[in-house]
């Protein structure tokens, strides 16, 4: 299994990104500068930061880490950032007397800003009474004690000129410190900013510009660009709605060099998965050797092909372990669908594979040996076509034998005997899934279903695997009028994983909504979403067929007919309506009979 933590080992080939950042850092004409590393959740931003740090760790560079999320709720983001930088400067090396003089001034000014913030909230007397000696005085013995009375007087004057003077003095002292020493670069790595609330995001960005943007300084900010944009828009709510996007303009002023981490392509994803498996099966030395060969400089391998796979494995390892061979074959089988589901996201890939390994280990602990490729194929269905998966589980327990045996052996010209699966050969995704090796028709699926029961793991994952655009579309689809109409239009650009996750969330809401009026509105939203995305029709039919009849409304009957009319699922809809006509729910039965 693989942990979720950042790593300095490059399994994605980020070298071209780290090189780009290092070129900026080491170019005197481009500093001071602020670099934005933008990427989705789980795209590898923190790992990229670690690689950049390793590449720029030199005796004359000072690298400082700041995580605004850790300070959120405890203190002001500006003072937290300033205090962290000063603390790290003190601890980074032994300073001469000239440098200590400037650092002492910075310490005093940070204390001044802390008092400024604290007294505004809890009162000067209480704040000062709670403060003892700080580490700054202990580390820099020659720094005289603060003239607290004078600072309080300045604060009580509430004179904006004094505050502006303090900002200017801090910046000047910071600039002089860097010029008076042998520091080549001070590199501040700011991570997890997109986890913070909007006020913390803006406060941190403003602190960089107000206090710290001086020669020799480089700030690298790792974040989801969309969340930073959201924070900026929250900062300027008074601006009228227009085509002018203030957030873009604001970010361009603060961040000179935006670098975006792209989603991995299918070939890159296969290489990444295969390297994950190699890391498990090889010792560290052998794995590092493989990694070096795979991403060798000057390699002109076609970028549309995987660099490391089952076909070229022996080019990298003379005698590869048998288990690694099997895993790379598995990767080749599931990768095309996996990359579309997870949108090329490395963290989601790890989580999917970790769940696979975890379930295999659960089975082993009960003395059951599951086939890895069979379980992986079932998990793809569970993850992406939840309703179809639930239908397969239900049929497997209700009937003798394996329902997939007849489906896999039939072609489109042969009618599938089990009506519950009549749509599986017309739904493009399910057709593709059925063709993936291995075939499951002769497997005892009940053994596998035991370890996938409850679907809790994937329900927990579904919201996290949805992009921020997906979450916004979901929220607005449940609205009305123009908002809903726009959300449906926006959903055209979403990846298949988001579309599936939105469907799952809507049917979950439908299943638990007790208010009939609200349930009716959710039904309409679901219908419109499925009309927009025909790939969901089979899932809609499966949900309607298996849902409790207590939540089915008479309006679901024309909805079902409208959605399936003229499609391969029309006969399936009639079967479901025929079943409803015999329901113990009299209102539903009457409507279905009509």
Could you name the key traits of this structure?
five-stranded parallel β-sheet, 594 residues, single chain, 61% helix, globular, mainly alpha
Instruction: Using the alpha-carbon principal axes, give the shape.
Output: globular
Poorly predicted regions are 121-149, 155-159, 412-416, 454-464
Count of individual beta strands: 5
Strand arrangement within the widest β-sheet reads 2-3-4-1-5
Q: Considering DSSP H and I runs of 4 or more, what fraction of the residues is helical?
A: 55-70%
Provide a concise account of the structure shown.
The chain is 61% helix and 5% strand. It has 594 residues and is mainly alpha-helical.
Q: How would you portray this structure in words?
A:
The protein is mainly α. 61% of the residues lie in helices and 5% in strands. The chain contains 31 helices and 5 strands. The two termini are 56 Å apart.
């Amino acid at each position: 299994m693989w942990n979720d933590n950042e790593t300095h080992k490059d399994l994605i080939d980020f070298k071209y990104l780290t090189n780009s950042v290092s070129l900026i850092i080491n170019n005197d004409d481009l500093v001071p500068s602020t670099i934005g590393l933008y990427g989705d959740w789980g795209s590898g931003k923190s790992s990229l930061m670690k690689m950049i740090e390793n590449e720029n760790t030199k005796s004359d560079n000072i690298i400082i880490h700041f995580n605004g999320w850790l300070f959120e709720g405890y203190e002001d983001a500006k003072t937290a950032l300033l205090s962290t930088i000063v603390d790290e400067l003190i601890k980074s090396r032994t300073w001469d007397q000239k440098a200590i003089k400037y650092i002492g001034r910075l310490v005093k000014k940070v204390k001044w800003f802390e008092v400024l913030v604290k007294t505004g909230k809890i009162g000067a007397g209480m704040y000062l009474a709670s403060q003892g000696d700080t580490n700054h005085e202990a580390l820099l013995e020659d720094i005289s004690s603060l003239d607290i009375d004078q600072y309080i007087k300045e604060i009580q004057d509430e004179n904006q000129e004094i505050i502006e003077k303090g900002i200017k003095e801090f910046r000047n002292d910071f600039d002089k410190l860097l010029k008076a020493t042998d520091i080549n670069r001070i590199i501040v790595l700011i991570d997890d900013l997109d986890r913070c609330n909007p006020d913390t995001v803006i406060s941190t960005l403003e602190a960089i510009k107000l206090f710290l943007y001086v020669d020799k300084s480089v700030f690298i900010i790792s974040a989801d660009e969309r969340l930073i944009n959201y924070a900026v828009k929250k900062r300027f709510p008074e601006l009228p709605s227009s085509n002018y996007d203030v957030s873009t303009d604001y970010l361009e002023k603060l961040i000179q060099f935006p670098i975006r981490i792209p989603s991995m392509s299918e070939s890159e994803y296969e290489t990444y998965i295969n390297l994950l498996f190699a890391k498990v099966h090889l010792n560290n030395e052998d794995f590092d050797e493989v990694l070096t060969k795979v991403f060798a400089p000057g390699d002109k391998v076609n970028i549309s092909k995987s660099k490391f796979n089952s076909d070229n494995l022996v080019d990298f390892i003379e005698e590869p372990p048998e288990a690694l061979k099997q895993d790379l074959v598995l990767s080749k089988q599931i990768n095309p669908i996996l990359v579309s589901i997870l949108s090329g996201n490395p963290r989601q890939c790890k989580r999917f594979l970790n769940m696979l390994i975890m379930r295999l280990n659960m089975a082993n602990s009960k003395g059951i040996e599951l086939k890895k490729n069979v379980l992986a194929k079932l998990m793809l269905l569970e993850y992406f076509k939840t309703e179809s998966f639930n239908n397969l589980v239900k049929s497997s327990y209700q009937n003798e034998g394996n329902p997939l045996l007849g489906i896999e052996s039939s072609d489109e010209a042969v009618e599938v005997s089990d009506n519950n699966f009549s749509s599986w050969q017309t739904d493009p995704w399910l057709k593709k899934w059925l063709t993936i090796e291995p075939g499951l028709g002769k497997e005892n699926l009940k053994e596998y279903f035991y370890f996938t029961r409850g679907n809790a793991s994937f329900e927990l994952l579904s919201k996290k695997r949805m992009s921020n655009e997906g979450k916004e579309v979901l929220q607005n689809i449940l609205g009305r009028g123009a908002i809903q109409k726009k959300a449906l239009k926006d959903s055209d650009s979403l990846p298949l994983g988001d579309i599936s996750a939105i469907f799952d969330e809507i049917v979950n809401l439908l299943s638990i909504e007790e208010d009939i009026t609200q349930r009716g509105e959710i039904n309409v939203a679901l219908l419109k979403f499925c009309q927009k995305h025909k790939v969901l029709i089979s899932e809609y039919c499966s949900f309607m067929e298996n849902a409790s009849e207590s939540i089915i409304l008479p309006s679901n009957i024309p909805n079902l007919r409208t959605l399936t009319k003229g499609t391969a699922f029309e006969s399936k809809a009639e079967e479901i309506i025929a079943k409803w006509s015999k329901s113990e729910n009299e209102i539903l039965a009457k409507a279905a009979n009509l």
